[in-house]
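Checklist before submission:
- one chain only
- standard amino acids only
- sequence pasted in full

Submission:
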Amino acid sequence: MLGCGGFIVLALGSLVYVCSRPQTASVQASEQAAIAQCWQRSRDPERTEIYRRAQADSCREMHEQYVHKFGPDAAT
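Returned file contents:
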């Protein structure tokens, strides 16, 4: 029981650490690149229409999270 409680505390502590780290310009640039690459994959004519639509949905979600994290002024 004590081991389980320790694991939960360790997991929550690591989550807080990851979420509280400052966002650097390199993190922002890499996320922009990932979104751009996502949009490229969503337009790939060799993929099925279902794949392209699902990929586009993922890209929109990534963009929304990016705007939430870095603000609307960072979105280009």
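Reviewer check: Residues 18 and 72 are 23 Å apart (CA to CA).
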